[in-house]
Amino acid sequence: MPRPRPRLLPGLTLAALLALAALCAAGCGKEGSPPVKGPKPGQLPVYTVATGFSLPDSATWRRARSRGHLVVGAKEDQPYMGEKDPATGAYSGFDIEIARMMAASLGFDPKTITFRTIASANRETALQNGQIDYYVGTYTINALRKKQVGFAGPYYTAGQSLLVRKDEKGIDGPGDLAGKRVCSAAGSTPLQRIERDYPKARAVAYDTYSICVDNLLSLQVDAVTTDDTILMGYAAKAPDELKLAGRPFSTEPYGIGVPRGDTALRLALDDAIAAHERNGDWKKAYDATLGLSGVPAPQPPAVDRYPAG
Ligand code: GLU
């Protein structure tokens, strides 16, 4: 028997929903709905910090070494991928674990990383300006971006998908978006694809996907589009309000962004990704983060050590 669901309140935000979910986490889970839980520190792998590691050909590495720690760009509002706890300031998620593994391989204690939140539209500038040493945040590798930055990886393959309200019946794929308001992040590949391939959709852009989700909950837009990894996180945290619709309709290989000219850093990170996939860290990190949304760990894609140029 379907349960009657409370109607959405126009003022309801994702933050309010998550606060409610946190209150409920101890005792009010319902049968059939995924548990609301985040990465637990005890379940996360501990990465062995490389001793005596040196990368003299990398200007980025040398600068970090003299600074004493790494500065890494990330997302802060993508559950299970890159999320910042507003109370403690701590970052967690699969991308954050990838950033930590990389730090350990470069000879830095992952605990000393300074994370900086950088929105999708600002990633290339942050890397070009030296604001961050590298970036790990659902960052799709593509030819256009490779003209501006370098990419180690890929370390995961996502796919563009759609998030809708639980009671939505009319949207089951991008072909159903004509005349619908579809929200995505400025500077993202999903926004570009909707504008290019589905021009009848009414695309709406904000800085972050969490603003899009707030707009979906308050009935301002009809769908949110971005990678399934990100949308699964929102859906798993608000299972009574949100669901994914249809199947992924793109391939988004995730890379670690580095300054474009720093080939030494890029190749060192390629080696590090492959090493952490081989020694089991990658899978342990996945299981403790993105795996909580219910999808078992896939086989990671092969890293692409493309030539400098
Ligand atoms: N992977 C896509 C991109 O890099 C969407 C996710 C994001 O905006 O970070 O544009």
Automatic annotation (TrEMBL):
Span of the signal peptide: 1-21
Entry-linked InterPro entries: Bact_solute-bind_prot3, SBP_3_CS, Solute-binding_3/MltF_N
Residue stretches making up the Solute-binding protein family 3/N-terminal domain: 69-293
Pfam families, A to Z: SBP_bac_3
Metal-binding is among the record's keywords: no
Coiled-coil ranges from the UniProt annotation: none
Domain of life: Bacteria
Protein family: Belongs to the bacterial solute-binding protein 3 family.
UniProt protein name: Glutamate ABC transporter substrate-binding protein
Organism classification: Bacteria, Bacillati, Actinomycetota, Actinomycetes, Kitasatosporales
